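Note to self: the last two entries modelled the partners one at a time, which told us nothing about the interface. This time every component goes in together.
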Amino acid sequence: DGGITQSPKYLFRKEGQNVTLSCEQNLNHDAMYWYRQDPGQGLRLIYYSQIVNDFQKGDIAEGYSVSREKKESFPLTVTSAQKNPTAFYLCASSTLAGGLETQCFGPGTGLLVL
Amino acid sequence: SQKIEQNSEALNIQEGKTATLTCNYTNYSPAYLQWYRQDPGRGPVFLLLIRENEKEKRKERLKVTFDTTLKQSLFHITASQPADSATYLCALGAGNNRKLIWGLGTSLAVNP
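The predicted structure of the combined assembly is written out below.
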């Protein structure tokens, strides 16, 4: 079955440690996205990538880094520079068809930094 | 700046009634608008897309309207069921811009 996987579902880290969240898709989508979701704040775009080896900052990129070495994979690293890393992180992918963009989301990863 | 507003308060309705959710936007000219459903602790799931030149779209018990003059979309769920309880998000898109503009979502609770 085609889809997007994120792992792990929950992640615990100590403050000051970097952590990498995994996102893999087998939908053959060209674009991938990382969002952060906090209660009452909706989806906020962290980074997105339209093609392999290229990515752009979203609205809240500070303290995060990404790579896009393969079409299927778009890992997100939450660095120690991110002041409030505890949140629910969602990965999505999409393809542009007829000028229309519909995003498919993974199940999300809940990150708790103690 | 671009802004999307959805009903900020949770919507509670009785099973069997029609739920109507609102999405208003400003400072934007979307080429299309989408509605997604999100359950707690899970990723959003795409429901419907409506283009700027379409007035209404239907899918089973779901109906979306799009008024570009009022800058508003209405999302209707007819014959609502407790299983429809979730948060519903609207998102705007424009042409080849790969970034969607997201609303905060409206929480819907359908009571049996």
